[in-house]
Structure formats: C-alpha cells, structure tokens
Amino acid sequence: MRLQRPNLSFAALVLASTMAFGLAGHFAAEAVIHQQQAHQVNELTEVVLRRSEFAVDFAAASLDDLARRNLASCDPSALQATRLHVYQRSAIKDVRLVKPDGSVICSAYSETLEFDKGWVDRRDMLPSHDKALSLFRVEQFGGDALGVLRDVDDSSALVAIVGINASLFDIMPAELRAHSEVMLALSSGEKLGAFQTDAGRPLVEPVNFDRSSARFPLHATIRLERAVLSSWNNEAYWRILAVALGLGAIFGILLARSRRMEGPVADLDRALAAGEFKPYYQPIFDLRTGQIKGCEILARWLRRDGSVVPPMNFIPLAESSGRIQAMTWQILESALAELRPLLRADRSFKMSLNVVPRHLLSAGFVEALRRKVLTARVSARQIVVEITERDELDDLARAASVVAELRDHGFRVAIDDVGVGHNGLSRLKGLGADMIKIDKFFVDTITVDASTTTIVEMLVALARDLHMTVIAEGIETEEQLRALVTSGVEEGQGYLVAPPLPLAKFNELVERRGVALSDAAAAASTALVA
C-alpha cells in the first residue's frame, strides 16, 4: 500500500495536468479554428478587391495610352483608333470623351450609349488616391458597369466603361458557394456586382467580411451563413486537442527548452560562419522553344550531416532576425563563382537574385552589389534583382530611385509575386522595373478559372504597354504552359522543367537541353534541304 500512494499521486498529477491542458486545448482549438476561418475568408475578400483593382489599373493604363497617343478627340480617325484599342481589350466595353462636368461629348462605340439608364454628374464621381482618376457606377439595362475617368486637360477627360463580370467573384470554395454572397461596391455604397449561386435565397444569420481599397473607392464584402462557417475547415480541432494533451505530459521538457530562445538564431549565425547556405538554381525557360534563358538563385541550408533544410524553415527567421542580408550576399558570392563559366560563355544568360525591400533600401546596397559582380568579372546586364514583396515598399520614391540607379549600372530589375503581394499595378509602374513575375497562384488556377485567364491577359497587356517582360512562376503541367502561351506569356519557371537544382545537376540540364535544341534545329534544317 505504501508503494501505491506515490503512484496514485503521480497518476493524479498527470491526470490533472492532462485535463488542464486538454481544457485549454479545447478553447485554444476553437479560437484557432475561428481565427483561421476568418483569415481564410478575409483572404478571399482581399482577392476580390485585388481583382477589382487590377481591372481599374488596366483601364487607367489604357486611358493613359490613348492620351499619350493624342486620341482624346472626336475626330473620326481618333475614334477609329480608339475602337481598335477597345476591341483589343475585352475587359473594356467602351471609351468616351467627356467634358469637365462629366457629360459625354462622344463615344468610341456610340451605340453603347443606348444601354445607359443614366449618367452621373462629375460631382457624384468618387476620387481615387490618384487625384486625376475617379470612379463611378454606370447604370445600364444589361447590368451595371464601372466608369473609370482620367483627366486629360482642363477641358476634357477620358472615361473607360469596364464590364463587371460576376464570374470574377466566383471564388468561394465548393462547400461555401451555396451559402455565401460575394459583392463589390463603391465606397459610397453603390453596388457594382455580386455573385450568389441562388440569387433569390436570403442567407440565414449571415456574417460579413469587409475589405476597402486603400487606392480606389472600392469596397468588397463576403457574406456567409454563420452555421456553415462554423463547421467549415474544423478538422484541426482534434489535432490541436491531441497536441494539448501531449503538452500536458511533457510540460517540464518544453519549459526547459523555452529558456533557450536564442537557439535558432544562434544556429543561423553558426551556419553563416560555416558557409552552409548554398545556392540552388531553378531554370527560367522560353515557353515556346523550351530553351533555358536564365535561372533564379534559391537558398538551401546544407548542414554538415548532409541534410538539406528547405527555405520555409529558415528564411522567415533570417528576415525577422536581420540575418537575411548577410545570407543574401553569401548566396550571391557562391552563385557568381559557380556560374561564372556559364555566364561568361553565354552573355545572354540571366541570373536572378531575390532581395527583400529592407535590403534593397539599405545604405550602400547598389555599390556592394556592383563590387561583388565586378570582382566576379561578370556583366551587370546578366544579373536580375528580384524585389520580393514579403515586406511592403513604404518609401516608393526612394525605391524607384534605387531601381533607377541599378538600371543605370546595367542591372535588370524584376518585381516578384505580382498579383498577391503588397504592390498594385500602378506602384509597379512607378518603380520602373524591367520584368514582372506572375505568382504561382494564378498559374495554378489558369486552366480551371476563366477569370484567372482574364487577369493574366491584363497583366501581359499592361506589361507590353510598359515595355516589361512577363515571367510565370510555378509551371507544373503542359496544360498550364499552353494556357500561358495563349495568354501571351513568353517565359516561365517551374517543376515542369526542373525543381531548384544544385550546380552539377543544373549544368547537366543546361547541356542536355542545349544538345536537344541543336539536334532539333539540325533535323529541321535537313528536312528543309530534303
């Protein structure tokens, strides 16, 4: 009996600790799931807002192009050129020349005026962050459209009539579609468009998720039935509860380990000192020919025991701890040394380096980059600086100045993660970059979502207007490749050709692809002679 008392006390303590952690786990699971659900729906609301901003940016860029070509006129030849411009941009239904008060002078497609229920006065139009750009609702018999007004001079302005396609808002997961409504409105409350599978059915106890644009007077809302939302994506409850129960048993160990908060950062410092961060190379290729035209440098942590740590396990910590700059320079120096023979043999080959905004805007960045490239005896024109959008570029003017300085020295500049990062298209234009990289999110959905194809085509058209190159990221299937080619994208990267590779395998791939292209060219030449 004396032996049983300690055992009973131990069991009671473990049981009490497990129950306490289990109860805490229950509340934590509910809180985490609720937070995750809200976060996911808020992200969907943000997607609606971003798509709408893309449409406005696209319309504004089109109006800028017309004004730049002196087509803000009712002259027959100007109207003919404007009609061709509208025909080539399916998202725009019409372009109209208006007076300062907003009244219509003439229209590229005058017959569209017959579909207007009314036309607002300039005083009722809503200004954007760009004071020369205003938005308003155009009431039409076939459904409302969005008017985008751009001032040309003191006596006239151009207006693009942008069609609001309800399919652009069809973004809800299958299990939520029948119990939700997605809406876009102006900040004045005027509704522009909505998507609901059963438009006549009222939602039961709806919960609203709202997002407002910081650049345009646009407001996106997703309404969801509360009961459906609470049961959506709650599979994590039992996993969280199991973790909580486990934590109750090993609380002492976790407490001891929690006192070593400096451990992961110290590991990064040791790895930097030992030169354990190595470059891997993912090829960038021509979508039509398959020719490898360059590569993107991606960091991998090669530990002494031979294991490879993926970037998601150390890049966020490197950024938050301030080690990302040293890591970036270490990766670049290794890549320049390894790829120097290839870069010197093929002067058209490009090597892309990821740089976070904080590093780009740091003192001496441009000079440090020039010094490292000159030391490696590589041409600056072969180096592409990719600005990642994990952090927002708070000082756009300063960033544009750094980009201009880089380009003056011969470097190319690309904007990464376009479409899902912090910068809108108008800010991309302000940076003056050479390239934009379409995020994998759009590539994943381009074969299954018609609205994605529209967005990609808009990005390609805008890039061409700005004389920028478009590169698609994350291409995994031939079907995606064909859809991107059809949309006008010329270059890309992804697992369809190769994942990020160490130097030896990358060189082998480049050589194998080069031989294959040479053989194909020779075969074609022989066929022509025959």
Automatic annotation (TrEMBL):
GO terms for molecular function: cyclic-guanylate-specific phosphodiesterase activity. Pfam families: CSS-motif, EAL. It is found in: Cell membrane. Keywords: c-di-GMP, Cell membrane, Hydrolase, Membrane, Signal, Transmembrane, Transmembrane helix. CDD domains: EAL. Residues 261-514 form the EAL domain. Its EC number is 3.1.4.52. It catalyses: 3',3'-c-di-GMP + H2O = 5'-phosphoguanylyl(3'->5')guanosine + H(+). It is a multi-pass membrane protein. It is an enzyme of class 3 (hydrolase). GO terms for cellular component: plasma membrane. Residues 1-22 form the signal peptide. Its main location: membrane. InterPro entries: CSS-motif_dom, Cyclic-di-GMP_PDE-like, EAL_dom, EAL_sf. This is cyclic-guanylate-specific phosphodiesterase. It comes from Bradyrhizobium daqingense.
